[in-house]
Amino acid sequence: MDSNTEDDKVTFDDLQLNYDLLDGLDAMNFIYATPIQEQAIPIILDQKDLIAVAQTGTGKTAAFLLPIIDLLMTEKKSNQKVRCLIIAPTRELALQIDRQVEALGYFTGVSSIAVYGGGEGDSWDRQKKAIIKGADIIIATPGRLIAHINMKYVDFSGIKHFILDEADRMLDMGFNQDILFINKQLPNKKQTLMFSATMPENIRKLTKKLLHQPESINIAISKPNENILQVAYCTYDHQKPALIGSLLIGKKNFKKTIIFSSSKKAVNTIVTMLKTKKLSAKGISSDLDQKEREKALIDFTNNKVSILVATDILSRGIDIKNIDLVINYDVPQDPEDYVHRIGRTARADAEGVAITFISDKDQHRFLNIEKLLGETIRKTPLPEGLGKGPEYNPKPKYKKRRNFKPKKK
C-alpha cells in the first residue's frame, strides 16, 4: 500500500488525546497528525524529557501543546500555582503560542497568558496577577520573566512542565545564561522539552545541563515548497537599491512583500531607501520599540503597507498569509535560515517568488544554501541599466597560509 494514502496517516484520534481536545481539533478541521506530532505526542504523554529538532511549519507548536494540555487536564491542580512554563525568544512567538493554547484548549478550560516586555502600561499588572493567581500555562520571553522573578513574588514550585521553543534562536540572541537562571527557579523534578530548528554544539551543551535522559526526535529540514519560484541576482552592494526599485516599482502583482536583512542596523536604511522610491514600507527588528513592531505587523497584515523589512526575527514563528514575494537583501549566514525566510511565501497551496541578492563577498554562503537544497538556483542577469554584476564563482572561505621559511643559521 502507498505510504502516502490516508489509510496510513496517523489521526489525532489514534494518539488517544482527551475528548475535549479532540473536539477542539474537530472544530478546526484538524484530522491528521504531522510527523513531529505523531512522534512527539506519545513521548510527552509518557512524561519523558524530549529534545526535538524540527523547523517552523512542521506543526511543532501543537506537538507540545496538545499533550501538555492533556496532561494538565488529568493532573491535580495546586491552588494558585503555575504548572507549565514555556520560554520563547520573541514577543511575537510568545503571543502566537498563547493564541494556539486558546484555540487548541477551547473546550478544556486550561488557562494561559503571554508574558513579554513592551505593550500597554497595564500589561505588567496583568502579567503579575496571572503569575500570582496561577495561570495553568505561562508563555514568556526570558528578559520579562526574569524581571518578574526579581520582584520576589513569583512562585514556580508547582511547575511540572518546562518547554524551550526555538532554543537555537534564543542562544543566538544571547539568552543562554537567562535560561539557566530561569531553570534554577524551577523544581528539580519536572518534565523538560526542548524544540530547536537546528542542533549546533551550544544546544547540545544546554541539553546536557537541562534534560534528564531525554528521548530524541529529528525531523529533517524540509525542502522549500515547490510552488516557490527561486531566483538570484549576483550584484554589488551599491547596485541593490536600484535593483529593489526595478523589481518593485509599478509591479501590481506583488501586493505583499517581505524583505529580509541579516543586519538590524540595515532595516531602517532599507526602509528609508524604499520610501525615497515612493514605496509603502515599514521595518521590524528586535531593536525597535514594541509598539512600533506590533503596529508594523498589523499594518502589513491589513494591507496598509505593502512591504515589510525585517531581520530573521520574522523568519520563524510568525504566520502572515498571502505573501507574494520574499527578497533576501543579503544572503543569510545559516543555510537553514534561507529555508525559513522563503517559507513565508507560497503557503496554503498558493504560489510565491523568492529572490536573493548575492554580493561578491556572500557567494560562498549561497553555495552552502545550494548544497543544503541539493539544487542549483537560477542566476538571473541584472535588469538593463544597472550595469554588470559580479560573476558567480564561489570559493571556499579560508585564509591563504603563508609559506614557512626557516631562519638561516
Q: Would you kindly provide a written description of the structure presented here, covering whatever features stand out?
A:
There is one protein chain. The protein is α/β, with parallel strands linked by helices and 409 residues long. The chain has 2 domains: 6-218, Rossmann fold (3-Layer(aba) Sandwich), CATH 3.40.50; 228-379, P-loop containing nucleotide triphosphate hydrolases (Rossmann fold), CATH 3.40.50. Helices cover 36% and strands 15% of the residues. It has 14 helices and 14 strands. It has helices at 19-27, 35-45, 60-74, 91-104, 123-133, 142-149, 167-172, 176-184, 201-210, 240-248, 264-276, 290-301, 335-342, 363-373, and strands spanning 50-53, 84-87, 112-115, 137-140, 161-164, 191-196, 215-218, 228-234, 257-260, 281-284, 307-310, 325-328, 352-358, 378-379. A 7-stranded parallel β-sheet has the order 3-4-2-5-6-1-7, sandwiched between helices. A 7-stranded parallel β-sheet has the order 10-11-9-12-13-8-14, sandwiched between helices. The model is unreliable at 398-406 (pLDDT under 50).
